[in-house]
Amino acid sequence: MLKTTVYLDEADASAHRRLGAASGRSQAELIREAIAEKTWAAVPRQLSFIGVGRGTGEPVGRRADEIVRAELGRSQD
Q1: What is the largest CA-CA distance in the chain?
Q2: Distant-in-sequence, close-in-space partners of 6: CB < 8 Å, separation ≥ 6
Q3: Contact predicate 54/74, CB 8 Å
Q4: What does the alpha-carbon distance between residue 50 and residue 46 come to, in Å, rounded to a whole number?
Q5: What range does the domain containing 30 cover?
Q6: How many domains does the chain have?
Q7: What's the predicted TM-score (pTM) here?
Q8: Rounded to the nearest 10 degrees, what angle do helices 10-23 and 27-42 cross at?
């Protein structure tokens, strides 16, 4: 973990102290949580399963039901 300094105006610092006291959590914990939530919301997610299946490259949206039925009928490779 890295140490850093955050400057807050008096009203925000006071509200932050009250929130920490009311929740029983440290100010550092609250700040880390807020940064993590904001950061993860802003970073586009990378889907790890893209491109792992087999296929011909043809669009399948209109044939989804047909493809699912066919795949469910196949035995596991």
Answers
A1: 66
A2: 31
A3: no
A4: 9
A5: 10-42
A6: 1
A7: 0.51
A8: 100
Q: Which strand (E) or helix (H) includes residue 23?
A: helix 10-23
- Asked whether residue 32 is domain-assigned, the answer is yes
State pLDDT tens for residues 53-62. Answer: 777 777 778 8
Residue at 20 is within a domain: yes
Residue range 2-39, pLDDT digits in tens: 999 999 999 999 999 999 999 999 999 999 999 999 88
Q: In Å, what is the CA distance from 41 to each residue of 1, 20, 38, 45, 64?
A: 21, 23, 5, 9, 31
Q: Taking the CB of residue 17, how many other CB atoms lie within 10 A of it?
A: 13
26 token code pair: 């440290």
